[in-house]
Amino acid sequence: MKNKISLLIAFGLLTLTTSAFAQHQENTGFNMPALNPKSKLADISGNHIGIRVPNYDLAIKWWTEKMDFRIIHQWPYADEKLAYLAPPNDNSFWVEILAEGKLEAQKNYTDLGESLSKPGYHHICMHVKNLDATLAELKKRGVTTVGEPFYLETITRKLAFIADPWGNLIELSEVVFK
What we know:
This protein starts with a helix and ends with a strand. It has a four-stranded mixed beta sheet with strand order 1-4-3-2, covered by helices on one side. Strands 5-8-7-6 form a four-stranded mixed beta sheet. The longest helix is centred in the N-terminal third of the chain and has 27 residues. It is α/β, with parallel strands linked by helices. It is globular and about 45 Å long.
C-alpha cells in the first residue's frame, strides 16, 4: 500500500512538473534561465505599458471593440484621462491609456523597416496562439496591419504588426517550430 501511495505521489509530481515545463516552453519557445528568487530585486515583474493618445473615447473604443480588452479602472489626472485595460483572457499584462492634454503629432508608419529609424520605445508585443486566425479577425474589425506577417527562424516566431489609430505599433507573436 505504501509503495502504491509513493508511486501515485511520484507520478503526480512528475505530471505536474512536466505540465509546468511544457506550459513554460509553450509560453516562450526558449530554454529560460532559472528564476532568481534570492535577488534583492526579485519582486520586480512586468505590469503594464502606457500609451499616450490624443482622444480618450476613441482609444477606449478601439481597445475594447477591436482588441476585446476589458476596462479595469479609469481616472482623471491633471488635464488627462487615464485607464487600465487588460486583454480578454489575461490579467497579467495591462495597457494604460494616457489621453488628451497637450500632445505633439506622431508619425504613422506603413512600412515596418521605416519605423525602425526612430529611437525610443518601438512597439508592444502580445502572444497569440494562432496568428493567422487573430489577424483575420482583426482585419474583419478594420484594424490596420503594418507590412505582411513573417517567420523569424532565429526566435521561432511568426510575427505581424498592427497599429492603433495613432500609429502605435503592436506586435503579434506566435511561437512556431518548423
